[in-house]
Design brief:
By secondary structure, the protein is an alpha+beta fold. It has one domain. Helix content is 31%, strand content 10%. Strand 1, helix 1 and strand 2 form a beta-alpha-beta unit.
Length: 80
Amino acid sequence: MFALHINDNFGDGDTHMLPLDGTINWDDKMQSFKQCKEVDYFSLEVDFNRKHEKCVIYEKLSAAEYLKSAYDKAKQLLEM
């Protein structure tokens, strides 16, 4: 493995939500990733304009607020 691109969801669609906003157990996932060789690239595959009903949590965020939240969540994941 040389790169990760991640997102979260509720298991009912390709929602591309921010990590920690859906139902994926990130504690378990991040522990599994630690078993792999350290990766050089870690990116979020997310989109706050999705039309999925559960993405309404991003509806009132500006682009800057969404990006800050994405950055904060990526940092949180890397600290797990």
